[in-house]
Amino acid sequence: MQLSSLIGDYEICVSRLFAAIEAEDLAVIRELDIRMSWLRKAIRDFPAISEKNRRLQIEFFLDLLTVSIDQNGNVPPIADLRAIIDRNIKEFAGERTAPLRDHAESIASQLARKNLPDEYAVAAIEMSNVRISVIGRDLRYRYTSPANARFHGMAIEDIEGMHMRDLIGLERFEKRAKAYFERCFAGEELSYCYYLDTERHGCVLQECRMIPQYGPDCEPIGAIVMMREIKTDQIDPVMSAHENRV
User: Fold this and answer.
1) Regarding predicted confidence, which is higher, 2 or 72?
2) Phi first, then psi: what are they for 201, rounded to 5°?
3) Disulfide engineering: 144 pairs with which of 53, 133, 134, 233, CB 3.0-4.6 Å?
4) What mean pLDDT is predicted for residues 91-111?
5) What pLDDT, on the 0 to 100 scale, is given for residue 74?
6) CATH no. for 129-246
C-alpha cells in the first residue's frame, strides 16, 4: 500500500470517528481506535525512500501533534516524529538533500510559530545547518541553534540570554537589525540580504529571514530568525539589487 493511501485511510477514519462520537456509538469508536492505531504505526514504519514520502511522513505527525495541542491544550508523545527524524537525520548531512534540509527549516518555523515547548522544536531545528535563533521582545536570545553558536565560535549557553547588540555589535544593531526587529515584532514576516565582514569567516553574503513568534494571546512575543550564507555563484541580478537596497 502507498503511503498516501495509508494517510488517506487515516483521514477517513478521523471523519468516521467524529460521527461515531457524536452518535455515542462505543463499538464503532473502539473499532476505529484500533484501526487508527494500526495506521499510525504503518505510516511511521513506512520505508520512505523519496523526498516526497519523507515530507508526507513528517507532516502527518506534525499535523497530529499540532492539532492535538490546539484542541486539547496537551502535548502528546513525540516518539513517532522523533523516530522518523532519527531514521533520516544522516540524509541532512549531504548537499544532495538540500531541499529536504530546507523542509527541516520550515518544520522548525512551524513549530516555533505555534509556541510549542523547545524540546519539540529542537529535533527539527538541529537537523539544519541554517543558523536559527529565537529572540524575545527584549532583544535577548532565548534560544540559538548549534549552527549559530559554531558560526560565532561560542557555546550555546553563552549566547542565550545575551542582548543582540552585544553579539553583533552596536553599530550593526542600530543601523540595520533594530529596525527589522521592530517590524517583525509588529507582525511582519521579513527577508533581506546583506554583506557581513567577520574576522572568523571574512566577508560573506547573508540571507536573514524573520518570522514573528506568537504567544497564547496571539500577540507577537518574539522573532524566529534564520540565517544562511549565500554562495557568490548563487547570486542573481534580483538578489544583488535587493542587497544593495538594504
Assistant:
1) 2
2) -120, 0
3) 133
4) 47
5) 42
6) 3.30.450.20
The span from the CA of 232 to the CA of 33, in Å, is 54
Residue carrying the nine cell digits 518544520: 107
C-alpha cell at 216: 497564547
Cell of 78: 513525540
* pLDDT score recorded for residue 176: 84
Distances in whole angstroms, Cα of residue 180 to Cα of each of 109, 153, 154: 18, 25, 24
**Rounded Cα distance, 111 and 117, in Å:** 9
Residue 244 has pLDDT above 50, yes or no: no
Cell of 76: 502528546
Q: What is the CA radius of gyration of the chain?
A: 21
Measured CA to CA, the distance from residue 55 to residue 48 in angstroms comes to: 9
Domain ranges of the chain: 129-246
SS3 of the chain: helix, strand, coil, percent, to 5: 60, 20, 20
Rounded Cα gap, residues 210 and 181, in angstroms: 8
Query: In the beta sheet, which residues pair with residue 220?
Result: 214
- pLDDT tens sequence across 13-52: 888 888 888 888 888 888 988 898 898 888 888 887 787 8
